[in-house]
């Protein structure tokens, strides 16, 4: 078992999901409104949003998960820590999706970024 330190925290390698190098080399895609894309370019800032604020209930699945502490045999409710996470939706899917365009380009003013 590999252990490493980060920010004074010991991490066990089997508890961390590392992306495969092949995945790291693939392009990712996102649909933005043109207004949002221009704002990102103008301000050089990309905003992350709390997943609990996302419209899609399936995107919030992690907030509803329960954990199990093996030593104490306690069931852990992860929703209390989920509020500290921020994110943004990107896809590895090369094919365009009507659903993505409808969700992220409500006014039909969207662009797809690679």
Please describe what this structure looks like.
- Strands 1-2 form a two-stranded antiparallel sheet.
- Strand 4 (66-69) and strand 5 (74-77) form a beta hairpin.
- Mean pLDDT is 76; it is low at 1-11.
- It is α+β, with helices and mostly antiparallel strands and 114 residues long.
- It has four helices and six strands; from the N terminus they run E-E-H-E-H-E-E-H-H-E.
- The chain has helices at residues 21-24, 34-43, 79-82, 98-104, and strands at residues 3-6, 9-12, 30-33, 66-69, 74-77, 110-113.
In short:
By secondary structure, the protein is of the alpha+beta class. The protein has helices at 21-24, 34-43, 79-82, 98-104; strands spanning 3-6, 9-12, 30-33, 66-69, 74-77, 110-113.
Strand content bin = 15-25%
Helix content: 10-25%
Radius of gyration: 18 Å
Mean pLDDT: 76
Dominant shape: elongated
Taking pLDDT < 50 over at least 5 consecutive residues as the criterion, the unreliable ranges are 1-11
Let me know the number of strands.
6
- Compressed to H and E, one letter per element, the order equals EEHEHEEHHE
| SS class | alpha+beta
Major β-sheet strand ordering: 1-2
Sheet with most strands: 2 strands, antiparallel
How far apart are the first and last residues' alpha carbons, in Å?
37 Å
Q: Tally the helices.
A: 4
């Amino acid at each position: 078992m590999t252990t490493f330190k980060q920010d004074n925290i010991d991490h066990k390698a089997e508890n961390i999901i590392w992306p495969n190098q092949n995945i790291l080399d693939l392009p990712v895609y996102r649909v933005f409104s043109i207004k949002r894309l221009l704002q990102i370019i103008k301000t050089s800032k990309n905003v992350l949003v709390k997943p609990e604020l996302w419209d899609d209930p399936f995107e919030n699945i992690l907030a509803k998960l329960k954990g199990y502490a093996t030593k104490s045999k306690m069931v852990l409710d992860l929703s209390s820590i989920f509020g500290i996470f921020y994110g943004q939706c990107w896809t590895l899917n090369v094919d365009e999706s009507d659903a993505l365009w409808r969700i992220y380009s409500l006014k039909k003013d969207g662009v797809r970024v690679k």
